[in-house]
Design goal:
7-stranded antiparallel beta sheet; alpha+beta; about 500 residues; globular
Length: about 500
Amino acid sequence: MRLSTLVIGFSCVLGLSLQTLQAEVTEIMIALPDADASQTGRLFVVFTKDTRREPRLSISDSPAPRDASPFFAVDVENWDGSTIEFQPDAGFPIQSVMELGSGTWQVQALLDVNQVLSDLDSPGNYYSTPQSIEVGSGSQELSFNLSERVPEEMLPEDTDLLKFVRIRSDLLSEFYDQDMYLRASVLLPPAYEQGSGDSYPVLFHVAGLNGRYTRSQRLMNDSEFMEYWLDDSTPPAVIVFLDGESPYGDSYQMNSAVSGPYTDANFTELFPYLAEQFPIDDIPTSRFVTGCSTGGWVSMALQILYPDYFNGAYSLSPDSPSFRAFQLVNLYDDDNAFVSASGMQRPSARSTNGDPRFSIADEVRLEAVMGRGGSYVNSGAQWGAWNAVYGQPDENGDPIPVWNQATGEINPAVANSWRPWDLEIYVKENWSRMGSDLTGKLQFWMGDMDNYYLTNGLRFLEESLNLMEAPAANAQFNWLPYHGHCGFGTQVHYIDVLNDMAVRAAAR
């Protein structure tokens, strides 16, 4: 095959602590594997001092400026292999390569062309081999050849207990006008014998942000869980691990005007397929849902929005169910997401001792560099995913941002359009219709020092649920003092959930 090259040059001054040296990066060579195919995507150049893994895998490691790997990015559209000049439209945590500090850096280039999956390590993306450069030793010439490509997706090999599934979704394929797939892994009870006709309650497990269906493999190495799962006295069940990936980051398994009909695709395509292929007792009293963080919100939302479809939700450290406390932002009353009414920068994360780790502004700036068009709503990361799930599409189909990414100024009209996703409001407005199907089905675990300030939103929901009557909500809230985000251990995350689920399924 014929190779074309992309030469990208930028001239910069490297700011050093004691002196200023002229450093000139003259060429970045990018080879196209197929000169007849134009490429559209976002091009990254990444620097890191961490030698434990490739720089391209560190892009979104930390929004904290002092801990982040510097990277720069620009969109390329219908690139035909001709020479272009690399002029990044944004960088994080620094705006220019001239701000790089001295020392030894690992450097790598990446071209993200996969618009179906948001992960930068998705199939089809191009990248170079890492290089090592010394900043502070004079002029530098970098030459990157995007000779490597992330291989096409292959399902892991099945085992006796763990099976992997990938099916085409007609609903999502129609929405995106291209082939779209749903993925899952299925953990079977050890007592199940194929052809026996036995069926078991099913627990749908939803991951944290952008968690993949392959995470079930890690559970197989959890000795505490496997001892429980293989014990003859353990109530048998099937666990289905759902996939979080979508073009806009985590789909939250919802029907979204921006990211597509994921709930409908699950309910009408994936779940019926799984019930046909595996020993799932496919009735409402035998269906349960759980997860932590993103999965905590999804499990809570699925149970609330579809109260007669599931028989219980086990929600751990969920994203906020109330937009009165969207982390530390009140979307309805605040004017600015980045700065509080008292003029303080709002943190987005903290240690369990209360020490802030990074700000909302930091996190949004990082996502803006990651996102197509330099927009945080296209980042595939946390704030981008929330905008995609809750938001309405603009003329290009992308979510209209709820606040200005440069200033943090909240758009009240957009915030008001998010109200249907405010689960606290939804419960209060719809209890007379759904209360009888929801009572006793919600269980929550939350640390009172949640690392992402999610405690307040859940307390608002607790207060509202406690006021519900005819019937009472009978929701269970487990507050853990001095505890942070998730991390409740195997006993709570799986064993307690599965034991309670068995009791509820048997009581039908």
